[in-house]
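Exercise: predict the fold of this chain.
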Amino acid sequence: MAVFTPVSDDDARALLRTYDIGELINLRGISAGIENTNYFLTTTQGEFVLTLFEVLTAQQLPFYIELMHHLAQQGIPVPQPQTLKNGSRLTTLHDRPTAIVSRLPGGYEPDPSARHCALAGATLARTHLAAKDFAIQQPNLRGLEWWQQTAPSYLTSSRLINVNYCSPYWTNKRPSLPRPYTPLCP
């Protein structure tokens, strides 16, 4: 479930008054996702995605929002963050940092072909080139320091099992994992 914070039609109408992207036609929660509250937002001017950020803070988000804006301005197929009437691309709704971005066409591809992979690779290359002149910097929020703080809780959690259960698999394919516990067998 990816609707952790409820948003009513009245909430959406009030929020839309701070943008120039039209009036509300439809608001529908998106059930996929794991971290943020997401809604498909249809207005008189187009299709968008409304996101309330549940984990990242307002101080951490400008890097991501401005990078998306920068990439979209250079023709990379990423969601375009919408700009509020006050010039910002981030706001707050229900005490959560909030953004509205354009809704991209397309959908989930359950069986990608070589053509799909080639397109993804070419797009990734274009993205790296387009981001070369992006000025904002931010440390990796899931870098070494995060891993050092987070890994111990996973090593003692119920998500791990005794390695003897699938010893041949882990001995041959994952010899560097800590003993006696490893992630669940595939």
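Check your answer against the key: The radius of gyration is 21 Å.
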